[in-house]
Write a structure and sequence with these properties.
It is built from three helices and six strands. By secondary structure, it is α+β, with helices and mostly antiparallel strands. It folds into two domains: 2-47, no CATH class; 69-138, Methionyl-tRNA Fmet Formyltransferase, Chain A, domain 2 (Roll), CATH 3.10.25.10.
C-alpha cells in the first residue's frame, strides 16, 4: 500500500508512506482490496498531520494495462496455478469466463488440487446465480 502525491505520470508521484502486507494463497482481489483499504486508513492517519514526500526511484517502474475482455478468458488447459491466479484476480468483481462442457460460465473460485490438477469450486452459468461447481454439474442435462 502506498500513499503518494499524484502527478501527471501514472503512479509516479513522491511517496509519503508505504507498507507491504501478506497475500494468502486463497485470497482473491476482493480480500486484497479490503485489506489494502484498512491499511490505507492507518497510513493516512500516520502521514496526514505532517506528510514528508520522498521521490520514487525511476528504476523498476511498472504499468498495469487496463483489463480487456480477453483478460477475462480462461484457458482451462493452461498451467493450473496460472488459471487459479487469474480467477483470484477477477473475483469477486467481474469474474473469469470459461467454457465448460460446451457451456459458458463465469468462474469465481478455483484451486489446484492435491494431484496438481485444476479444480473449479464456484461457477455462475449465464443468467443464473453463483453456485458450487459440483451443484452445477449435477444440474446439467
Amino acid at each position: 500500500m502506498t500513499i503518494h502525491r499524484t502527478t501527471k505520470e501514472l503512479d509516479a508521484g513522491p511517496i509519503a508512506a508505504q507498507r507491504a502486507f501478506p497475500v494468502a494463497p486463497d485470497d482473491d482481489a476482493g480480500t486484497v482490496f479490503a485489506r489494502a483499504a484498512e491499511l490505507a486508513v492507518e497510513l493516512l492517519d500516520e502521514v496526514l498531520p505532517e506528510p514528508v514526500f520522498t521521490p520514487q526511484p525511476e528504476e523498476g517502474v511498472t504499468y498495469a494495462e487496463k483489463l480487456t475482455p480477453a483478460d477475462r478468458e480462461l484457458d482451462l488447459a493452461g498451467p493450473p496455478q496460472e488459471v487459479v491466479n487469474r480467477v483470484r484476480a477477477l473475483s469477486p468483481h467481474i469474474g473469469a469466463r470459461a467454457v465448460v462442457d460446451g457451456r459458458p460460465v463465469l468462474v469465481w473460485k478455483a484451486r489446484v488440487g492435491d494431484d496438481g490438477a485444476l479444480e473449479l469450486l464456484e461457477v455462475q452459468p449465464e443468467g443464473k446465480r453463483r453456485m458450487g461447481y459440483e451443484e452445477w454439474r449435477r444440474g446439467l442435462r
